[in-house]
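Illustration: Phosphatidylethanolamine-binding protein.
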Amino acid sequence: MLFLARLPVTSSRALARGAATAAARLPPSPATPSDSPPTAPNTAVVTASKATSSKPRATPAANAVKRDTSNISKSSKDEKAGPGARKLAQKKPVFTRRPRISLARPRKWNRPIAPGLIPAYDQALKLIRDDAAKIQAEAAELRARLQAGKVPKELLEAEEKRLGILDVMGKVNLPDVRWKAYNGMADMNEPVYRHLVEQRWRNDGPLDLLMERLHQMNIVPDVLPDFHPSFDLRLNSPQKRTARAKPVWKPVEPGKFLSTQMTVHAPRLYATVFHKEPQLYTMVMVDPDIPDEENASFTTFLHWLQPNIELPTSTQPLALASAHTPYIPPHPAQGSPYHRYFIALLPQTRGRIAVKPQVREGFNMRDFIRDYGLDVNGGGAHMFRCEWDKHTAKVWEQIIKKPVPRFGVIPRPDPFREIKARSRYPPLPTKPVYGRPMVANAKGPARLAN
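Result:
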């Protein structure tokens, strides 16, 4: 293996001596014949200039000398100019990035291996496509029989279920279909893409992370007795808010801490639904960590409520502008521990419902689910956390319009309080010293009497 390293420069005279030695060892270059006729006038001028030139031919060693001496001169100039000039002289690299693949910027799948390069790959790709064509033909035949009404009623439900399985199996192994599902170009109106996206959500970690945070931070059972989500709910919040720059909305990981500035405006919710049947949902956002002074416990505060939501199959955020209960930003009290904020989209089992105005303070999530027939064995959920910071007081003053409360930890009774109050050392003796009695001093140690 060949290793290259930059050698230290000793002196220009030694480098010139080494270059001359290397040039002497090189064979002489063949001379260009001067009697050969030129092909063009410009060529004649160039040839004449080469013939009359007295400069020796540049060698690799000479080029190395030039580079090293140029580096020496540049470094000396930079030292004289100072660090500021060196920073200005350095050119910043230009980083280019390909645009992200999405439905707005679609791309086409290309084979990773050219045809004929690996025959085994070509044969495997042909086998996958032939098998997919056979399954698609079987699904088309079954679909025609169902539309024509040639299936018995007792087998109708089973055949419809079988048709859905065939629609998935007919395209699930095609490379271009899997590539589109992995790169965010899935058409959620097709069952094969819904199947692939759901499998990725369940098996690649997002669902496991959500359930871990819900149980680890005691959302279950503090807010809900149990919960089993059926679709992916994502949350975006502004991660950068300055006076001159627009906020950049970025996804929030479940359980992440957000500042008050990031939660002043309502977050954007994105839902990826894996079913095509129409279903209505109720969105609820609560804070179960509001201190309750009277009961020495905690109560729940309702931040956001919107019933009768139809989830779209597109990637646009949910339209929650005119909410039933408008959004109020998180406002954890000073001195209290961090607050958990839980957002849930729960399916409605009674169709469209009419929700009465709800009291925000002391909101009971379990009674609300029972009264309006919501289902916890489905839907989507997300959560984040907030703490008191310097901007939380503005939320209390401008939005809540209440004085800012302050809390603290109640001190526990100390059983050794009386023992700690006693002196560690015994009092000084009061017997006379050298015939003079000792007088006790309340402000200090005992002293001799006058």
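Reading the tokens back as a structure: Residues 209-400 form a domain with the Phosphatidylethanolamine-binding Protein fold (CATH 3.90.280.10).
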